[in-house]
Amino acid sequence: MSSDALKQTELVVRTIAETAVENEKYFGDLDAVVGDGDFGYSLARGFEKLLEGWDALDRTDVGTFLKKSGMTITSRIGGTSGPIWGTAFLRAGIAAGDSAEISGEQAVAMLRASIDGIKARGQSDVGDKTLLDALVPMADTLEQQLKQGRSVADALTATAAATREAAEATKDMVARRGRAAYTGERSKGSVDAGAMAVAVIVERISQVWSR
Amino acid sequence: MSSDALKQTELVVRTIAETAVENEKYFGDLDAVVGDGDFGYSLARGFEKLLEGWDALDRTDVGTFLKKSGMTITSRIGGTSGPIWGTAFLRAGIAAGDSAEISGEQAVAMLRASIDGIKARGQSDVGDKTLLDALVPMADTLEQQLKQGRSVADALTATAAATREAAEATKDMVARRGRAAYTGERSKGSVDAGAMAVAVIVERISQVWSR
Amino acid sequence: MKKFVNDPKAFVPEMLEGLALANPDTLRYVPDYNLIMRADAPRDDKVSIVQGSGSGHEPAHVMVVGKGMLDAACPGDVFAAPPMDYVYETTKLLASPKGVLLLVNNYTGDRMAFDMGREMAESEGIKVKVLTINDDVAVKDSLYTVGRRGVAGNFFVLKAVGAASEQGAGLDELIRIGTKVNDVTRSFGVALTACTPPAKGSPLFDLGADEIEFGVGIHGEPGRERRKLSTADAIVDDMLEAVVPDLPYRGGDRVALMINGLGGTPISELYVLYRRAHQQLADRGITVGRSYVNEYCTSLDMAGASLTLVRLDDEIDRLLAARAEVAVRVF
Amino acid sequence: MKKFVNDPKAFVPEMLEGLALANPDTLRYVPDYNLIMRADAPRDDKVSIVQGSGSGHEPAHVMVVGKGMLDAACPGDVFAAPPMDYVYETTKLLASPKGVLLLVNNYTGDRMAFDMGREMAESEGIKVKVLTINDDVAVKDSLYTVGRRGVAGNFFVLKAVGAASEQGAGLDELIRIGTKVNDVTRSFGVALTACTPPAKGSPLFDLGADEIEFGVGIHGEPGRERRKLSTADAIVDDMLEAVVPDLPYRGGDRVALMINGLGGTPISELYVLYRRAHQQLADRGITVGRSYVNEYCTSLDMAGASLTLVRLDDEIDRLLAARAEVAVRVF
Lengths: 211, 211, 331, 331
Ligand SMILES: Nc1ncnc2c1ncn2[C@@H]1O[C@H](COP(=O)(O)OP(=O)(O)O)[C@@H](O)[C@H]1O
Ligand SMILES: Nc1ncnc2c1ncn2[C@@H]1O[C@H](COP(=O)(O)OP(=O)(O)O)[C@@H](O)[C@H]1O
Ligand SMILES: [Mg+2]
Ligand SMILES: [Mg+2]
Ligand SMILES: [Mg+2]
Ligand SMILES: [Mg+2]
Description:
Oligomer: heterotetramer
CATH architecture of chain A: Alpha Horseshoe
Number of helices of chain A: 9
Number of domains of chain A: 1
Largest sheet of chain A: none
Strand content of chain C: 15-25%
Radius of gyration of chain A: 16 Å
Bound molecules: adenosine-5'-diphosphate, magnesium ion
Largest interface: C-D, 67 and 67 residues
C-alpha cells in the first residue's frame, strides 16, 4: 500500500461500517430466509457505534486503529457476528502491528490473519456456508492480482467480482455452521447472508478506492 | 288449529330445532358482524340436545311438552339465547296449559306470552334491534291473517314474508340491547342475528306445514 | 384456522380436562357442568366464591380457582355465558353455610344465567348472592341500560374477595368489599387483530394492516371505533385519556396498574406499554403501588391489550397482596 | 407489523425499563448492558446465577430474575446473543466469592460471547463457569458440531440450580446439578405461524394456511420440516414420538411435562395439548409428576408450542418444587 496507510485503513473501515449501516434491511432479509433475521440489525447497530466514536478512535498506528475498532465491534455487536467480525478486526490489527507502511503482501497477510481468526472463533471452515466462503476466495483473488502486478484499484475490481461470484455460489451449499445449519437440506437454495455481506462490502471498497 | 294439536306442536318445535342446527354457520356469521359469533353455535348445540332427548320428552299435553322443551333449552343453551329462547318456550307452554286443542286465537296468545316473557327476561322491547323486532311483526301478521279467515298454511306463508321483511329492516336500526349495543352506531348496516333466525325459522315452518 | 384444536365442539371440555389432569391434587373437574372447583371446597368456615362466564378468556376464570382466589368456576362455551343449569348445579355443589358469592361480569347472557341460577338455588334454601362487575369505560353507561362490560378489572374484585373470604369474611362483608373494589376500577382495551373462535374457524372481524379496534371488549366484538395503528406510547396515552378522567384518578392517588394481554400479544410488548403508562401516571402525580403485567383476561388469540387502574386504599392493598395459589404457575 | 412498539431499536431497552419500573423493590436495571439483576445480588454466601441470550423469548430470561431463580440476566437484542462486553460487565457486577454460573443456551453466538466474557472475567480473578443447555431433539446432534439448541428445557436447569444455589450449593455442585438436569431433559417445538421481529417488521417466513413448521426453534428460524396442519392430538403424538425415544423415557419413569407456548398461542390451546400428552404418557406407563403449562420461552409472537420432558428423581423433584419469586406473577 502507500505511506498513508492509516488513511487508507480508515477509508476501508469506514466503508465497511457505512455499507453495513446502509444495507441493514437487505442483510437482515437474507438472514431471515433460513436464519433469524437479525444479521443486518446487529451489524448496523454495531457499526453505527463505531461511526459514533469514530473521531475518538486511537490512531497511533494502523494496528492500534484496527484493534480498537475490533474491540468496539466485539463489545457492541451481538449474535454470532459480534465475535466473528470483532475477531477479524482484532487479528488484522495484530498482523499489522506498528508498521507505518502496509505493503500489498502485508495487506493480504492481515486478511489471512482475519480469516484464521474467524475459523478458530467459529470452529468453521470453507464449505460450511458462512462468510468464509466469500472471504477466502476474496483473499485468494486479491493476492493473485497484486502478485501479477495489478494496481490496487484494478486488483480490487477483480476481487469484488470474484467475491460476488463466490457469495452467489453459497446458494447451492448446505449450511454446516450457524443457525442456518438447523434447517439442514432446507438451507440449500438461498445465499449465505454473511458471505453476501462480504461481497457487497468489497464492491463498495473497490468503488470508493477508485474515486 | 286441529285436534292433533300435540302433533302440530311437535312439528313446529322439531322444525325450529332442525333449522337451528342446519343454520349454525349462517347464524353464527350474522352474530359475528357486531357480536361475538357464538349465536349459531349456542342454538345448534342446545337444539341438538333437544333432538337427542326428543323421544323421551313428556308429551302429556301441549303445555307440558313445550315447558319441558323450554327447560332443556334453558339448561343447555348458553349465552343470551339460552334464557331468552328457553323463556319463550316456557311461557308458550304455560299459556297452552293442559288444553287438548289449540285454536288459532290460542296459538297467537301463546306467541304473545313468549314475546312478553322475552321482553321481561331481556328488559328489551321492539326497536332495540333484537329478535323481538321479528317476533312481534310475526305475531301481528299471524293474528291478522287468521282473523281474516285464512287457512293456517296461507296465514303462515304471509307471516313468513312479513317476518323476513321485518328482520331485514333491523339492518337500519341501532342496537340498544345485547352485545351489538356496545358498538353503538356501528351496529347499523347489518341485520340482527336473532331476528334473522326467527325469519328463517318461520319460513321453514311455513314450508313444512304446507307439505 | 391455525389452532391447536381437535373437534371444535370439544375445545372447552378438552381444555378443562387438561387443566384437571395437570392439577390432580388441587382441582376437581365435573364435566357435566364445565365445573372446575377446589378439591377442598366447599368449606363450612368460608363463603364459596364462584365465577362463571364464557370460555376463551383464560386464565380467567377456570385457571384461577385456588386458595385465596375462586372456589369454583363454571364457564360456558367459547364466548357464551354458561347455561343457567350449570350455574344452579355449581351453586348447589359449592353451597356452604356461610354462603355462596357469584361473581358476574356485566353481560346480558351472564346476568340472566346467574340471576336464574341464584333464584333456583335460593328457592332450595341456599344462601347466595350475586356481585356484578363492570369496569369497561369503553362502553358509555348511560346509553344502554345493560351498562358497562366487565373485563380484566374483574381480577381485582375476585382477588380481593378471594383473600377476604379466606380470612373468614361473611357474605355481606364480601359484597361490600367487592362492590368497593369494582367502584374504583376502570379498564380500556385495544385490539390489533381479531380473534378466531374454534367453532367459527375464521376471525370475527377484519382489520386492515394499519388499523386497530379502539375500545374493544373481550369477546371479539368490534370496539368503540376503528383507528389507525400508532406507536405503543400514543396508544397508552389514548387509553389513559379514556380511563383516568372517568373515575377520576387524581394526583396523590395510589393505584394498581394492570396491562393485560388479550391472548396473542407477547409479554415483551406488554412491558413496553407498562413503561409508558407508569411514566405517564407519575407525571400526573399518580403513584403505581402495585403492578400487574401479564395475561389475566384474554380474548382467545386476539393481539391486543387492556389497561386497568384500581385506586388503592389500605384495605384493598392488603387484600391484593395476600398470598394466593392458582393453577397458572409461571415458575 | 401489528405490534405495540415505538422505535424498534428501543424495543428491548423499553421493555427492560418497563420491567424495572414494575419491580422497583426487587430488580435493578443497568441500561448500559441490558442488565436486569436482583436488587440484593451479588451475595457473598451464594453463587450468582446468570443467563443471557437474545431477547424475544420473554419471560425468559429477564423476567425470571428473582429469589430461587436467576440473580441476573443480560439479554442481547431480539434474537441476537448479547455482545461479549455485556457478559463480561455482568459477570463483574455479579461476582461473588462463591462464584458466578453462566447459563448458556447452545447457539454459536451465545457460546462465543459467554466464552469470551468468561475468559476476560477469569483473567481478573473472578471465579466463573459456563453451563451449556441443549435440549432440542429437533436438531440432530451428530450432523452439526454446534449440536442441539437450547430451548424451553432451559427453564428446568435454571430452576434447579437457582434453588440449589439459594440453599448454599457451591459452583461445582451447581455444575453437577445443572448438567444432570440438562441430561434428562428433551424438547420439541412446532410453529403454526412465523414471528415478526420489531426491527424487521414482517414475518420471518411464510407459512401456508394449512402448514406448520415441525421441529422449530425459538428464533423464528424455520423448522426441521414443513408439514400439513393436523389435529392437536396428532401434533402431540408426533412431538412425543420425537421426544420420548430420544432419552429414552420409559415405562415406570416419573417426569415433568411442560407445554410451553411460543408467544401467540393462548393458554386454552396449551391445555388441550397438555391433556393429550399427559394421557399418552400414561398409556406408556410414564407418570407426570410435575406439570408446567404456560409461556416459559417464547419466540416473540409466534403461534406454536413446544413439549418438554424431564425425567425426575428425588433431587430434581425437590429443587423444582422449591419456592421461587419472579417478576412474572400471574395472580
Ligand atoms: N460458526 C461460524 N463461523 C463463521 N461464520 C459463521 C458461523 N456461524 C454463522 N456465521 C456467519 O454469520 C452469519 C449470521 O450472523 P448472525 O445473524 O449474527 O448470527 P445468528 O443470528 O445466527 O447468531 C451467517 O450468515 C454466517 O455467514
Ligand atoms: N336483551 C335482549 N333481549 C332480547 N333479545 C336479545 C337481547 N340481547 C340480545 N338479544 C338477541 O340475542 C341475539 C344474540 O344472542 P347470543 O349470541 O346468544 O348473545 P350473546 O353472545 O351476546 O350473549 C341477538 O342477535 C338478539 O336478537
Ligand atoms: Mg441471525
Ligand atoms: Mg353472540
Ligand atoms: Mg356470546
Ligand atoms: Mg441471532
